[in-house]
Amino acid sequence: MPxxxxxxxxxxxxxxxxxxxxxxxxxxxxxxxxxDVLEAILGEAARLAEEVVQPTNxxxxxxxxxxxxxxSVTTPAAFKDAWRQYREGGWLGLAVPADFGGQGLPYTVxxxxxxxxxxxxxxxxxxxxxxxxxIAAILAHGSDEQKKAYVPKMAEGAWTGTMNLxxxxxxxxxxxxxxxxxxxxDGTYRISGQKIFISAGEHDLSENIVHLVLxxxxxxPEGVKGISLFxxxxxxxxxxxxxxxxxxxxCGSIEEKMGIHGNATCVMNYDGAxxxxxGEANGxxxxxxxMMNEARLGVGMQGLAVGEVAYQNAVAYARERLxxxxxxxxxxxxxxxxxxxxxxxxxxxxxxxRAFNEAGRALVLWTALQSDVAHRSxxxxxxxxxxxxxxxxTPVIKGVLTDKGFEHAVMAQQVFxxxxxxxxxxxxxxxxxxxxxxxxxxxNGIQALDLVGRxxxxxxxxxxxxxxxxxxxxxxxxxxxxxxxPFTKVLKKGLNDLQAATxxxxxxxxxxxxxxxxASTDYLHLFGLVALGYMWGRMVKAAQQxxxxxxxxxxxCEAKLVTGRYFMERVMPETAAHLARIxxxxxxxxxxxxxxx
Amino acid sequence: MPxxxxxxxxxxxxxxxxxxxxxxxxxxxxxxxxxDVLEAILGEAARLAEEVVQPTNxxxxxxxxxxxxxxSVTTPAAFKDAWRQYREGGWLGLAVPADFGGQGLPYTVxxxxxxxxxxxxxxxxxxxxxxxxxIAAILAHGSDEQKKAYVPKMAEGAWTGTMNLxxxxxxxxxxxxxxxxxxxxDGTYRISGQKIFISAGEHDLSENIVHLVLxxxxxxPEGVKGISLFxxxxxxxxxxxxxxxxxxxxCGSIEEKMGIHGNATCVMNYDGAxxxxxGEANGxxxxxxxMMNEARLGVGMQGLAVGEVAYQNAVAYARERLxxxxxxxxxxxxxxxxxxxxxxxxxxxxxxxRAFNEAGRALVLWTALQSDVAHRSxxxxxxxxxxxxxxxxTPVIKGVLTDKGFEHAVMAQQVFxxxxxxxxxxxxxxxxxxxxxxxxxxxNGIQALDLVGRxxxxxxxxxxxxxxxxxxxxxxxxxxxxxxxPFTKVLKKGLNDLQAATxxxxxxxxxxxxxxxxASTDYLHLFGLVALGYMWGRMVKAAQQxxxxxxxxxxxCEAKLVTGRYFMERVMPETAAHLARIxxxxxxxxxxxxxxx
Lengths: 597, 597
Description:
Two copies of one chain form a homodimer.
Chain A: H1 8-18, H2 35-53, H3 57-63, E1 66-67, E2 73-74, H4 79-88, H5 107-120, H6 122-141, H7 144-155, E3 159-164, E4 180-183, E5 189-199, E6 208-217, E7 228-233, E8 235-237, E9 243-246, E10 249-254, E11 265-277, H8 284-320, H9 344-376, H10 380-415, H11 418-421, H12 427-437, H13 444-455, H14 458-477, H15 485-508, H16 513-548, H17 554-571, H18 574-582, H19 587-591
Parallel strand pairs in A: 3-6, 4-6
Antiparallel strand pairs in A: 1-2, 4-5, 5-11, 6-7, 7-11, 8-9, 10-11
Helix pairs in contact in A: 1-9, 2-5, 5-6, 5-8, 5-9, 6-7, 6-8, 8-9, 8-10, 8-12, 9-10, 9-16, 9-17, 10-12, 10-13, 10-14, 10-16, 13-16, 14-15, 15-16, 15-17, 15-18, 16-17, 16-18
């Protein structure tokens, strides 16, 4: 059975020593979670994730969800108690404003503990995750009445949320959607249509389910400009705000999927269901994107989280499994064989995963901090700069962390040899679960297009220029520090490749947009490498300083230096290959007629 | 439901136009399968694979295998008729010598059709595949009596074969194996022990199952030098050679696996079972390697085969699925949206898979031809050269084609978006099935070590030098051909990177073997890129010649030029990254103490 230990010490190192969490004490919520409280929160989340949530992961995969004749859906039996404890701990409303029943703590803290829960059980953690996304959309675009009616119930986990975008013929291209909304004359709408792939669409964990549904109001313009967002609760709130009459929405079936079996993926049928407009008519896409952006960061986190737990189990197996002898002579001569962690190729896998995970964690937390600054700072300029970075990093985190999280789950499975392929050890589940994160909330190809086609040019390239400047200045500022040179030299090379690729896009994609599409995925990963490399630069710098000061963190800091060096030596060389591919453009890629394939 | 079309035209192009199949007519067996017969055989195999075997793939995944209370195992119901037709077509014994009931045709032809069957149903095709491996081992090491008793029955598929290596504590490191063999005094042995992960260990397709079992004869030396190979049939042959008394071997359980559900993966218990020594006492490893090497080529083929069928289904979906508009303006303005094949990032996936699959097919067939020459040529020198290349390419084909085959199944699944994640479309199955090929028959890390630690230095590096010479001369010979320059230039650059990596190993791995281990996987893939790039060079050359001659193959040849260019532009840049990683050595990788992970 797989195990899990939340990386609390690493999270604290990143927050306190690398990102200077304490410097943000002036932002609302941060003073409620000063260093001591932060450590206590992480510790408590770790305990819940390790002892309560993680043990439900494998059995949840086996049992899965079931739809019954009456359209009801049951989740794995073990989820009930875990859900109760998760709710009672107040984890769902951690970062929700206190006015709406939450604790108002930083989004950064929410992100830090979010990793632990997703590592412990990704399918389970989707239930609160989707609810948090729906809360964000209601808070951003709902009326005061809507906020009051829904958010407190959702923040305590009494009600959960969903997002309803996809239809059978309509995935990425939301302009094609057909679900209809007809004004009922009383301010409500009658919603009719079918939505598919609705995670947590129907289940037995909460008293009510708040569906956020994209639909087209009668007579609305065609395409994405005619889409509106609606709140469609499973049970209509009664006069006292409790679940009342059943709404005309039901689960038609649940999908048989490769993984995340513990989460019910539903076909939802809306048969004239009552819905309330959320935000403006025909402004649904904008409103949905609040939820979507938050969800994309959450999905990126899932990639990291599953990669991390898979890595931990690979380490444990590599330490235990005796097979063969070290190439440099027996390491445990009293045993029949050495543990396989002595073999360089096993190390290669472990170090690759470790180097990525630690930088990924830093990138997620750094970006979460931008989100807090963007939403809570009183300084306009600071807020704008943070919001720029948040928007820029969202597709990078979603795309890169999920592509790599999956790749690393596969790598961890490989460490187990044949034992990784049988379901018993749980490594197959990590691979099957991680796979969806590359697809949902906008397939990674869409993330790449978002970065290249939107984020890059936004406001005259302000965000990307600021990022290049920050990374460049970091390299420059550490040029005189000879212990930093091995790191900054490689980082600078990566930045140069990224800037060259950006320049190539500026020169070649304007007149020929296919060149942007042809470059997009390579550009996304090139960007990710530089962002992760920058995180390594900052972590190494912090580790060197901490080591200089002495203290009890020596082992963690020494390991940081080694792991950072590994990232520079073994991961960063990929930037040149990405640049080379980008520079070849779209001509060859697009040359074959469709029928020649 | 997924579909499949066997790539007969491409196979014929590679065999006839690229590899000069007809030039080998002097080798035994080749004259029985001249160009016309070859085409007829491929066509008939294609029909069987497409119409009979492929339709059993998805239902075989769903139904899986079941073990019953009496230890018997049933395969998916649909497999029975497919197996009957496969047997009746004589496909199992295609390349088995006519003296032993086969057709004695070239191994090259066997490989060509083997791809089709593995694409159609990988789990199903493992039953004959393992049988063919067992036949090879018996032919190479068996006594005349053993050959006569087993091979004809196996060549017609009345009996099937297995290979029994792995034990719970003993996978890669066969020296640890504990299964015992005690001489019974009558020339037979009593075999006792437990074997795990035995593919096709017990099933209902054949009348008898011939287990080849590694075991340790009482008093044998420790480690791999004390291992012998035994023939242990499920039913002991009676006086007339038919299945007689039940042997003391039974299936204790079957594994629940990530994929290849149609193939029974068994725990096999040997309780004093009667066995016959195959080959020499304590020479088991050598005997098993005959089977293993053949199996490794077969597994590499599986990677290619699943990648190919996944690619084909991604193409079909990309042509059909309407979503979004081309970046260069609507391509099908009369429809609500364009087919997604117009989007560059979708093309990127399709072209990457295509460029790899076509080169992979060529590499497999080129290597199969080496096998035929090595085994059938009358010329010692020619035989040795071919055997050198065969040995060199075996780990490359196994490791690279399975790593990439899996990666491409994932890529193909991604084209389907959310529809790829649900089991209904069959894309998940391709991913789950392809995953095992990276693990069994020696995990890919072991293939990399075989290449770097054994094959490279064998006979003073004779094989690798010959390969470098061949590729170098190809580049040189085409230097004056300006249409070839864009290809040979990139190929030469890749060859230079590979030679530099080889030189680095020579200089750094002798005194420090960990440097070889640390380089191994990158070196394997670097080698694979150059080998595949060389295949592209030769395919492009052949296509250009054929285009110059006119004729009806223009579309195929034009597509070859485009696809070859794509490989050079988009895939080959990776060689530099591999070289950069290799050159960093083992120091950082090995620096952390095991307990620091």
